[in-house]
Amino acid sequence: xxxxxxxxxxxxxxxxxxxxxxxxxxxxxxxxxxxxxxxxxxxxxxxxxxxxxxxxxxxxxxxxxxxxxxxxxxxxxxxxxxxxxxxxxxxxxxxxxxxxxxxxxxxxxxxxxxxxxxxxxxxxxxxxxxxxxxxxxxxxxxxxxxxxxxxxxxxxxxxxxxxxxxxxxxxxxxxxxxxxxxxxxxxxxxxxxxxxxxxxxxxxxxxxxxxxxxxxxxxxxxxxxxxxxxxxxxxxxxxxxxxxxxxxxxxxxxxxxxxxxxxxxxxxxxxxxxxxxxxxxxxxxxxxxxxxxxxxxxxxxxxxxxxxxxxxxxxxxxxxxxxxxxxxxxxxxxxxxxxxxxxxxxxxxxxxxxxxxxxxxxxxxxxxxxxxxxxxxxxxxxxxxxxxxxxxxxxxxxxxxxxxxxxxxxxxxxxxxxx
Length: 419
What we know:
The protein is α/β, with parallel strands linked by helices. The protein has 2 domains: 136 residues, Aspartate Aminotransferase, domain 1, CATH 3.90.1150; 230 residues, 3-Layer(aba) Sandwich (Aspartate Aminotransferase, domain 2). Helices cover 38% and strands 13% of the residues. It starts with a helix and ends with a helix.
C-alpha cells in the first residue's frame, strides 16, 4: 500500500529527468577554441617546460594583476600550492599549524610532509568556515601558522583572522582553492594573508585538469616559493645552488596555455555563478527548514558549490532525506559534503605517515591530537545539516528554476509524508 509520502511524491517528481551541466565534462566548462589555439601554439613551439617557455610566466603576471598583488607563482596542483606556502614559512619539526576540520586532504598532507602538526580548529556551524575565535582556541605557544579556508567560495572573517595573526606574530595562509575572485570586505581573498593558495583542478572556477597558484605581497617569501617549486634552484640568478630541500612542483606550458585562456573567462564565469545562486536564494526564501548561503555585507560569495543548510527539525530526515528526494528527480547532491571531519581520516586517527615512525605525531602535544567530538560542536552540527549542490558557470536561470522547483517539491513531500 502506498504511503502518504509516495502519493505526494507522485504529484511532484518529473517523469523525465533532465541533465544539469557538469564541471566534470564540457557541458559545465568554458573550455573551447581559445584553449585549443593556445595548446596548439605550445605544441608547435616544442617548448613544454615553463623554465624555457612564456605561457606560465604570462599566466603568473596576469593572475597577479587580476588580484592586484605583486607576486604569483604557478605550480602543479592546489596541494603543491599549500605545500609551497608552508615550506616558505619554514616550520620546525613539531611546530603546529592551525587549520580547519572541514577540508580536503590535499590541504593537510603538506603540513605533515613539512614535519609540522595539523591542529584542527572548529568551524562556524552555519558557514563551515573557521573564525578568529575558533582559531584562537586552537592556538598554543607552538603555533607557527594558521590556515583560513574559504569553503565553497565564501570568505572567512579575514579582518579578525589577520588581526589575530598580527597580534601573535603568526603568518596567515589563505586556502582559496574554492574561492577565485571571492571578496572579504571588498578585498580579494588570497591577498590579506602572507600567502594565498589556489587550485585549478578539474572542478574549480578555472581549470587545467590539475594546477595551482601561490600569491604573496612579500618579495622574500615569493623568492623562496619560486625556488621551492624549482627544487630550490633560482633560474634568475647568475649563480645558484640547491641549498635547501625542495621539490619539483613546476606547472607545464601546456597547463599554462590552458589557464591563460581560462583566466580571460574567469570573471564572466564567476558572475554567472553568482547570478544563478542569487536567483536560487530568492526562490527558496521562506521555505521552512532551509537556510540559503548569503554573504555578509562587503563580502562576495563566488559559489564554487551551493551549500544549503537543512534543519531536520523542520524537514524530516534532514539533508540525507532531501538528497534522496532530489535524486528521484535527477538532481545529484551531497549531504554532509564530507562524510567525516578531516581528523577522523585514517592518517590522523591511526597516525600512519612515514613507515612505522608515526612522525611527526611523535612530537605532538597530547592536546594537539585530541580529536574528541566535544571539542568540535560546530563541525558536527554543520556536517549534519549541510546539503551541497553542484554548481558551475554553465548553469542557466532555467536550470536554477528546475532545481528550485525540485527542492520546494521535495521539502513538501517530506513534510507532508510525516503529517
